[in-house]
Structure formats: C-alpha cells, structure tokens
Design brief:
single chain; alpha+beta; Tetrahydropterin Synthase, Chain A
C-alpha cells in the first residue's frame, strides 16, 4: 500500500515537471521568459521547453495592433471654453521586453499621455479652430505619442478624435448662428431671384418695345410708300381721264357744230333755242331777277350775218365753205399719250409689295437686337439705289408730261 502511494506521488511529480517544462506560445503572442528572476528570452509562435523551477513566463504580450478608446476628457480651449473630447488610439507592441520592463501598464500610460498631450494641443486653439482642425490635432497627437512611447516598445499608428462636444449653451448659440446664416443665405438667394426676375422682365419689355418700334417703323414706311404710289397712280388715272374727257368734249363740240352748219339754221331758230335756254339760266335760288337785253334782236341779226348769207327771200342762211364746211381735224397725239392708258403694274411696285409680304411672313426674332432681315428690301434708300436697274417707282413720263 505504501508502495502505491509513493508511486502515485512520483507520477504526480513527473506530470507537474512536464507541465512546468513545456509551454506553447500561440502566433501573434509573445512570451517573456525569466530565469531565476532575470530576463532570459522572448519567444513567439512556438513550443518552448523550460527548466522546471528555474525558468518561468513573466508575461504574455499581444503583438497585434490594438484599438483603445478612452473616455471623454474635459479640455479647456484658448477662449476659455470647456469641451469634452473622446479619443481613439491605434498602437502596436513592437518590443515585448520593453513593454514588460519599461512601464508597469502601457495602456494606462498611453491614456494619460494622450490626455495631457490633447490638453496641451487644444489649449492653444479656439473652439472654432478645434472644431475645424481635427486632422491637425490628430497629427500632433500621433507625433508626440509615437515619440514618447517608443522607449516602451510601442508604435502608435493613428490617433483619432471621436467626438468634440462643446457645452450645451455653446451648442445652442452655434445652432442659432447656423440658423441665422441659413436664413441670411435664403434671403440673399430670394433677393437674387427677384433681381434676376426684374432684369429678365425689363429685358423682355425692352425687346418687346424694340420689336414694336421696328414694326411701326416698317408699317409707316410701307404705308407712306403705298400712299405715294397710290397718289401717283391716281394722278395718272385722273390725267388720262381728263384727257379722254377733253377729247370727248372736243369730238362732241365738233359734231354739234358740224350738225349746226349742216342744218343751215336761221336767226328765228337761234332765237327759239335761246328762248328755250333762258328758263334754265334763270333757275337757282340766287337768281331773283333776270334781265333780257333790249337789243337782243339786233344781236341775233348780227350773229346771222356773220355766219350765213342772205337768200332770195331775204333770210340769212349758213353756206358751206369751199372745203365743204368741215372744220380742220386736230393733230393726232395718240402715240404721245399711249402710255397714259397702260394698265400693267409697275415692276418696282410689284417688287416692293412682294418684299413687304415676305417681311410680314417672317417670324419674330426673340433676340435683343432687331433682325437686319426685317428691314431688307424695305429701306427707301435701297429702293432708290435700285432704281437704275428696275426703273423708278413712278410710271415713265417725259419732262413735258411730268410738268
């Protein structure tokens, strides 16, 4: 029985010795090994054999990059405002021996160093600079921390300010300021919109008036030109009508005198015709009294003696002259006045009408400047310049006819 107990104790001691002499260190971890209380070596990611009761693992250190978020820290800015800042530090242990022997707790050391450095950096900035200079603050913190933690076997990769919380009163003031700025921008934009609208309206009114003035100008030109052509044509028609009327009256008088001479009138017939005409001469509101000359018979007798010859019965009668009693014919001027009765349209007038119709069908241009095509073909100066090619707007007349 005693032998079994001794055997059991021996087996237990062997197991303890084996457990004390073998250590498995995972990858990305580092084990700091001491021999008799002094640093011996650092192992990582391997199976390690230890001398029982001589060697021991002092500490295991995680070699991966660590992310540590520190609680909000009150920091006073340059303009004496207290802000609460949260920080996040990314660091990695590069020297496990230094991390174990150079500092008691490197995480607490990083936290305290971050707090003091943050207060030093932010203390030289105003609140507005602090809120708008995150990258600058992050860079300064990383530089100071990386330099200070290098002897601890740490490498600071990145420092970020997670949040910057000003006091509630300051936040309320900032919100009011931002609201005022937004209202200011809205008012400015509204004023700009009204200004642009007024400018566009004025430009449209200006353009409308320009187009209306151009239209009135062209209408006045066309009206004046049409009235001029109308007067010229009407004057030519009146001239031709008067000429035909005078020609007709001459023919009528010629026929009447020829008939009178052919009928051989006597003084009694002339007296009878004169008496028939007297009532017509006396008609009218202004004719109250009509005087008949006393020597009326003697006047008729002298008129008969001048126009006729006394016959055997003592009565004066008209006798045809040697040329048959026919009055000489007037000079033939039909060739000279032939163009007075021309009914064709003047080519220049037709061209002006055609140009006016083309302008009337032209769409209105919306640009500010009047379209030059609106006045093409309608300017009196241009029409006058084309007169040598197309002829004057008035019908051709020689100088005597124009006078």
């Amino acid at each position: 029985m005693a032998a079994l107990i001794v055997l059991g104790v021996i087996v237990l001691l062997v197991v303890v010795l084996v457990a004390k002499s073998v250590a498995l260190v995972p990858q990305a971890d580092a084990a700091v090994i001491e021999r008799l209380g002094r640093y011996s070596k650092t192992v990582s990611g391997q199976l390690t054999f230890l001398v029982p009761f001589v060697d021991r693992i002092r500490a295991k250190v995680d070699l991966r990059e660590r992310v540590v978020s520190f609680p909000p820290q009150p920091v006073i800015t340059k303009d004496n405002l207290t802000v609460s800042i949260d920080t996040v530090v990314y660091f990695q242990v590069t020297n496990p021996q230094a991390a174990v022997y150079e500092i008691n707790n490197y995480i607490v050391g990083v936290e305290q160093l971050t707090t003091t450095t943050l207060r030093n950096v932010v203390g030289g900035m105003t609140l507005e600079e602090t809120l708008t200079s995150r990258d600058s603050i992050n860079g300064q913190l990383r530089g100071v921390l990386d330099e200070a933690t290098g002897r601890w076997g740490l490498r600071v990769a990145r420092v970020e300010l997670k949040s910057i919380d000003p006091p509630p009163s300051i936040q309320e003031s900032m919100e009011k300021q931002m609201k005022a700025d937004r209202e200011k921008r809205a008012t400015i934009l509204t004023a700009e919109g009204h200004r642009e609208s007024a400018i566009k309206t004025a430009e449209g009114d200006k353009q409308s008036r320009i187009l209306a003035a151009e239209g009135a100008k062209q209408a006045a030109i066309l009206t004046a030109e049409g009235e001029r052509q109308s007067r010229i044509l009407r004057a030519q028609g009146d001239r031709a009508a008067k000429y035909l009327q005078a020609q007709g009256q001459a023919k009528a008088i010629e026929k009447v005198f020829a008939a009178i001479k052919a009928g051989k009138p006597t003084p009694e017939l002339l007296a009878y015709q004169y008496m028939q005409t007297l009532p017509q001469m006396a008609q009218g509101d202004a004719n109250k009294v009509w005087m008949i000359p006393s020597d009326f018979g003697d006047a008729l007798k002298g008129f008969a003696k001048n126009l006729g010859a006394q016959g055997e019965d003592g009565v004066f009668r008209f006798e045809p002259s040697a040329d048959g009693g026919v009055a000489p014919k007037p000079e033939d001027d039909s060739a000279e006045v032939a163009d007075w009765f021309e009914a064709k349209t003047d080519p220049a007038v037709a061209e002006a009408v055609k140009a006016a119709e083309a302008v009337a069908r032209t769409p209105v241009d919306t640009s500010l400047a009047p379209d030059p095509s609106l006045t093409k073909g309608l300017d009196l100066g241009e029409l006058s310049a084309r007169q040598p090619e197309t002829g004057p707007l008035t019908p051709s007349m020689d100088p005597e006819q124009q006078r």
